[in-house]
Design brief:
This protein has 474 residues and is of the alpha+beta class. Helices cover 20% and strands 34% of the residues. The chain folds into 2 domains: 410 residues, no CATH class; 37 residues. It contains 9 helices and 18 strands. Strands 1, 5, 10, 11, 12, 13, 14, 15, 16, 17 and 18 form an 11-stranded mixed β-sheet that branches. Strands 2-3-4 form a 3-stranded antiparallel β-sheet, with no helix packed on it. α6 packs antiparallel against α7.
Length: 474
């Protein structure tokens, strides 16, 4: 186990599977092991007597993040032991038969003699059993409607073969592995900010220019910050944004309501597929630290709204007092389509639905000849219009075809889609101290925003390639 960088000690490990038993999970009312999940309520349901019972919450993890000190780690977040066997043998307590479960495929199996369901609930060091699980809430029919609605808005330029083959009958419910991190910290920011006091134009009718007057301030912000449920993928396949996969759209359907996670129970996985995590905390630490600083920077923005031209932070310090890691299975409805683009060349398109919130994002194959043809037609019409109208900046009409092409490409492919963790992660700032000292009045500025303003900078998207390279070399 790696040394805790906060206190120079090993992290405190909380046994999140305390009391869990491999084998049979029984209905507390009738004793049946045929248990599933009611997607509407999130409760476990006995399929024999229809009794529903509340999911269990994990114990031992800090719930008041402002009191978090040092580093705490759920036992499911410990380093993966590479030589751990995937094949586990369970003994059926009903009839005594031995049942084999391949944890690379599932964490449940039925006894071939008495048909009772056996489950892997105790954690094994191969990444197959997380600390918590978030039950499916959106039904398959609801997910189908979301995907059909998403694709329906993109039928015009969709590839003919895709439109012919598209069906939501093959969508799958998948539990993807994530690492959820809680942080207790103290932030200090210092720099310069600008507040606009005047905007005006100078020059003649045909040659005008816009100018700005602004006050320059010395700005400092000092505050305590708690972050709850900062969530990053713990599967290298999802972290790896390659040109032949559109898995960035899966990232884009976050966030999840992490506060509603239940203690892991294999019954939640019944009827769904799942992936195991293959990255450890140390491989994700740099990404989490960078994203934490991004969250802090955007949290500070709530205290500097008067600086409408931006702030240039020259000092950004974040002292982490406590950090808590836990692994989670989070639910996604997934549609996939493989677009063949020639020999040894294909793109795997996804449309994903957050199975808690219905947030939907995806990629649809484009019929490029049609899109190019209409974009060229728009460009020709814009050129003719440019020759007719009397307008000082009429040359901008020549951009019409290019703008239309890229707008439609982004709408269909969503190559820029991502999780906006810097604003969407649950956070709280308190004990805020402010310094706002006027330095000078500035006149005749030509830029609408402050030069070198960096208060909306996002840095955390640049580290995934480093993580992938580290994982693949293991």
């Amino acid at each position: 186990m790696a040394i805790n960088p906060i206190l120079g000690q090993e992290p405190k490990i909380v046994k999140t599977d305390e009391g869990a038993k491999d084998g049979q999970n029984k209905c507390p009312k009738c004793g049946s092991t045929d248990i599933s999940v009611n997607a509407k309520t999130g409760q476990l349901r006995c399929n024999f007597c229809r009794n529903e019972f509340e999911p269990e919450k994990i114990q031992g993890m800090e719930t008041d993040i402002s009191k978090l000190e040092g580093e705490i780690m759920g036992s499911g977040a410990q380093d993966i032991v590479e030589d751990t066997q995937n094949v586990i043998t369970l003994k059926c307590s009903s009839c005594g038969a031995e049942v084999v479960v391949d944890t690379s495929e599932s964490t449940q199996a039925r006894c071939h003699w008495c048909r009772n369901t056996l489950s892997i609930n105790q954690q094994i060091p191969n990444g197959a059993v997380p600390d918590v699980v978030l039950p499916f809430h959106v039904t398959k029919d609801e997910a189908k409607q979301q995907i059909e609605k998403f694709v329906g808005k993109r039928k015009f330029f969709a590839h003919p073969k895709f439109k012919e083959e598209f069906t939501t009958n093959n969508i799958m419910g998948v539990y993807f592995p994530y690492m959820s991190v809680d942080i207790n910290s103290h932030a200090h920011f210092a720099g310069h900010g600008e507040h606009q006091v005047r905007r005006y134009t100078r020059g003649s009718r045909n040659n005008t220019k816009t100018y700005y007057d602004a006050d320059l301030y010395q700005v400092e912000r000092d505050f305590d910050l708690t972050i709850e449920g900062l969530t990053v993928e713990s599967s290298s396949d999802k972290l790896n944004k390659t040109s032949n996969k559109t898995n960035n759209v899966i990232n884009a359907i976050m966030p999840f309501d992490m506060e509603n996670c239940a203690k892991y129970n294999a019954n939640y996985l019944k009827g769904y597929t799942s992936e195991r995590r293959d990255t450890n905390v140390e491989q994700l630490r740099a990404l989490v630290d960078t994203q934490t600083k991004d969250v802090a920077r955007f949290a500070a923005n709530d205290t500097i709204k008067e600086y409408d031209r931006g702030v240039n932070w020259q000092v950004e310090k974040l002292e982490v007092k406590g950090k808590q890691w836990k692994t989670a299975y989070l639910p996604v409805w997934l549609y996939s389509y493989k677009e063949e683009k020639g020999e040894n060349n294909s793109i795997l398109h996804y449309v994903a639905v957050n199975a808690r919130t219905k947030e939907t994002m995806g990629s649809v194959p484009i019929h490029m000849p049609k899109l190019l043809g209409i974009s060229i037609l728009i460009e020709l019409l814009a050129f003719i219009l440019m020759l007719i109208v009397d307008f000082d900046y009429k040359f901008i009409f020549l951009l019409a075809g290019f703008i239309y092409f890229f707008y439609m490409y982004i709408k269909y492919r969503n190559t820029n889609a991502r999780h906006h963790y810097e604003t969407e992660t649950k956070k709280n700032i308190f004990n805020v101290n402010k310094v706002d000292k006027l330095m000078k009045h500035q006149t005749g500025l030509t830029n609408s925003r402050m030069a070198n303003a960096n208060n909306t900078r996002v840095s955390g998207q640049n580290l995934t390639e480093t993580i992938i390279n580290t994982v693949t070399k293991m």
